[in-house]
Amino acid sequence: MSLDGTAPEIKRGRKYDQVVAGARKVFLAEGFEGASVDLIAKEAGVSKATLYSYFPDKRMLFMEMSRLECERMATETLGVVDFTAPPREVMTTTASNLLRFLLSEFSLQMFRICTAEAKRFPELGQAFYKNGPEMGCNRMVAYLQVAIERGEIICDDPLMMAEQFTELCKTKLWTRAIFGVQSEFSEGEIAEVVTAAVDTTLARYGA
Q1: What pLDDT, on a 0 to 100 scale, did the predictor assign at position 27?
Q2: Is residue 59 a contact partner of residue 10, using CB atoms and an 8 Å limit?
Q3: Who is most buried in 40, 56, 95, 139, counting CB within 10 A?
């Protein structure tokens, strides 16, 4: 935070992507506490001075890396969603993409890091929530509002519906993954959770 109370700006230049890519690899391997600036700079192939010229501190670098990855996931997910398609089709595609992201190394490690650092650095979890779950729900709400207007969905609280749908997508497999009970998941296991999430949601909200 600067003297006037505003957050310092992130510099973008020719080595910006290089720094973020190096940070991503180190954070996922070492966690937040174990990811030293020296290690990140070495992995990124830049000097510490160069790294600091882009990101004033490690927390800002972590949050920027998190934001970019979550935005990439959201863009890829919505990029294949046809908002004119029936709810079952849209929700099945969304659930499948969401569950695969939730089970990814990045998502699981980010959850663990944010949980571990919640007391010392709550802003890490807050940033991940804003750029991940919150952004995903808001985009889901945008679709649901269209489906409600078309009479395909009956719901007076699309945000609650989106939140519930997200939690249904975490059933069974995510819990096993986050606790290290299971690390590999078959297409059949993923399809089972996706189908159940969609069926349950449409049984409650489908027209």
Answers
A1: 92
A2: no
A3: 40
